[in-house]
Amino acid sequence: MGDVESAMTKTNRLQRYYEIKNRYKEAIIVNPIMTGGLIPKETWEKLVEEKWLSVGYSICFDCIEGQSSLVSKPPVRDFLSEVAEFLGG
Which residue segment(s) compose the domain that 56 sits in? Predict the structure, then answer.
């Protein structure tokens, strides 16, 4: 496979990420690095009091690894790996 064909194949694999929607795009994210979207009880109560309707982790609600490069849903881990491969890393 030539360099051009190889680059096109890699580009086609990345196309699947265009369909992923970010439901938090317009939201204000409070401390997005917290594992699993867990926050202290007092913080949660204040956010509810202020009528925030959604509280959670901007990438996932199930992330327990605490490192975004390990998140599989959405496929952040796969995406980072494929981008690195595409760029020759």
Answer: 3-86
